Amino acid sequence: MGDIAVVGIDCAFPGAAGVRAYWDLLVGGRAGIGPVPGQRWEARDFPAVGDSGGFIDDADVFDSDFFSVTPREAAAMDPHQRLLLPCAWRALEDAGRAPGGLAGSGTGVFVGVMGGEWGRLTMSDLAQVTPLLGSGSSAGMAANRISYHFDFTGPSLAVDTACSSSLVAVHLAANSLLAGECDTALAGGVNIVLSPSLGLVYGQLGLAAADGRCKPFSAEADGIGRSDGVGLVVLRRLEDALADGDRVYAVLRGSAVNQDGRSNGMIAPNRWSQERVLNAAYKRAGVSPAEVAFVEAHGTGTVLGDAIECAALGSVHGVPRETPCAIGSVKGNLGHTEAAAGIAGFIKAALALHHRIVPASLYAERENSRLRLGERGLRLLKSPVRLPRGENIAGVSSFGMGGTNAHAVLASAPRSPRAVPASAPRSPRAVPARARADAGAAGVFTVSADTPEALCRNLAAQADALAALPRGGAAALCRSSNRVKTGLPHRFALTARSTGELVDGLRRAVALRTPAPGGLRAAADRPWGRPVVAFLFTGQGSEYPAMTAGLYRESPAYRRHFDAADEALAAHLGTSVREAVLGGEEWGGRPELVQPALFAVGYALARTLTELGVTPAAVLGHSLGEYAAAVTAGVLPLDEAAALVARRARLTAALPPGGGMITVAAGPETLAPALAAEPEVVAAALNGPADTVLSGPLDALARIAEELTGLGIRTRELASPYAFHSARTAPVAAGLRTAPVDCAPAALPVASTRYGRMLRDEPMDAEYWAGQAEEPVLFDAALGALVRDIAPTHLVEIGPQPQLTRIAARAGSLGGAELLHPAPGPEGTGRELAETVAALYRCGLDPDWEQLYAPEHRRPEPLVPYVFSSAQRYWDRPPASVGAPAERRPEGPPRTEVPPRPEETSRPEDPPRPVVSRETESDGAGSDDPVLVAVVEAVTEVGGYPTERVVREARFHEDLGFDSVMIMQLKNRVEARLPRVGEVSVQQMLPALRSVGSLAEFLDGVIMARSA
To answer: Which of these is catalytic: 163, 182, 310, 325?
Structure first.
């Protein structure tokens, strides 16, 4: 059998809500047994069952809004299904996967579930049967419910082999993975003790423990105590998990399932079948029984069951070995979780291998001597055992009451190869002292949620969990949050280097999002679209010594792309610009270095951002910046652009001295008289209505500057040794015309600063670049055209320091776009690049986060799982009682049987939370529009929502969870409330089913048309 990796776990067992709590319960030697909740049944009415058992706290809690389930459907759903949905979400998060990212995938779901008690309890009154009860009460839909809500298209099946159901589900999931039916599988089981009925059966069979506690292999063992439980594991083929860098808890080496056949009783265990299933599993796993360090046994604590199981275990494991095979059973801690028993033991074994500690078996102090464990080569664990280094092997057994037996063989996870650090900067002088930053690499910590309230709740949970960690770098944690916490509509992103900085930022965010008493919570964290990004490439004049050295040091992606540009340039320059750029020496007056260096920076920044998923909707380049813009637009390949830039740089360096440039706070019309008096001076760049750059001889520029200053017009000399974009650059233009250029049509819109408009079909050939060198830069006109045609939400400046964004801001040419700069100047590091990506993520971008991190930070780090709302509770049936069955209430909004804790409910002063968390004014059901009122009433009746929760903007599928059956019910109720509508087919209604408001508008139009 091929190896299967256990990469994710989630569970909830009595006294242990979550994986960490479960492990703490096990290693602490505690039990989760307690009194029967009054919500289930009155213990005094059923003395034969006892008054104790293992019960999950808050088994009635279900965040129906999160899963887009209407309150009416949630009330009709089997609690088994309600427990599975959040468990599946958390398990996938624990596996390092954003659950929403698997939508549409062939992920398989295999769930062990025993019987159909909810169906018997809710479907017995035939007069009250509804479609929602039909789907909600079927145990067979337990797995399908997960597949439906998560949009998984792989195998999806419920498994009922009684108490072995969940381990059989794991076996089937592993085989499905090995057969290639799916690449990821959720497997496990769930059990809720809904009534005392099965307990009565156990009592009549003499199998029920008087105190409701299982005491496996103990002299005190007297039977079974029933318990709740839910657990799921995420399984992948080991080679896939290792290739993707997943954390692996343990490896499933093999498993087997068999049947007792015709034994000495339908529900009696069979020693020989148990022996056979163990041997078959070890054979498939390729291990011998002597290699098995411990077995998590079925161990129910019944006299016959323990005796038969120990005989089978001894027969298989009682072989010559250094130490006896250790055994134990988690049922001493939890009770018998029935359909979830196998997964409870499987998770315990996986965690034991992961932590290299096997917890003690409860009630082992008084070992049952009649089991003769020592003689059989077995030892009952009376205290925790530390496992040795290297591979350890464990077995897990689970046996069904009807004779279906399962055994799984687990092994320690292989040691992960150490991450190879990113290549260091090649130049020993690449990181000058002034460019040093904090030791920790910058990352972006992300959290997402379905509502503003949920976002605040999860930010607080992350802050509390991270505060408990040792202080250290935050990059790996950030990377894990990007992989797991990014799939929901309300978004948060924080750039940080250390855990301390991260915790402080999270707590500030919580404080900002926590409304004052009586106030409204802000809902500005949800983007309603994707950002439209334009890249602005800076030209000459933005250079400085050691430019982008901090970014080069901290960002492997930037370093890789800069080195690629440097290599392409070196083929034409005969030297590297890396030393000049990063070394910190003054080199500003050498165009043969400045121009190629600026191109390398622009190219590397643009490639880094596009690799991170920031795809520009358009590009604009200012003068020299247009070369890198052309590469980004797909016009020029890197080598061709490098050759052009190197040629331009050599031609520029050959120009005679004596030219210069000044910037003037005036437009061309104001400057016309001065320019007429100095014919050698020209307008070299039109950056704004009152922002012009003049170029020409130094003496002529000095005379113009003196004249303009006398008129009160500000001027400033630019540090330029040449008169760019004037007649003095004619030799450069002539040289650029001599060699053909390999150019292609632009793959995305280009705002041409040569033409002052969006590029049409004109090629960016040799003639283009020649004219571009000697003609004025029409930046203001080009940017205006870009803003009009593209309507960008964000302008990202691509260059070593801000220049164009400041010019555009002065000119008022931004069109409301937000300005971003990933390299803001001499103090810039990788942090600004991270913040640029974070800002775009907050506005709706889904980045390729992986490229933000060095290889040594690309390791999984555990994060607190999603914290669901606990405000909604569903237990739509009275407690079981003696005598005739109580009349079941018809489906309706949820009823709170157990009062929620104060901290889990909204404060009285808080307004009702709408279905869609959006800052919008809506009259809801109080509207004067009678059609809207009728629609809202019909929606509340079908879905079970309170009227105030159904707002005009609520979407039927995404926000209200309506399916095709509910739409039919809605249609019938709307027609009944609005007789003037007449009969409307669902096909006619479909286009209007975008939201409550759109349906009301459609129906209003129907009424008007039929009244005409």
So the answer is: 163
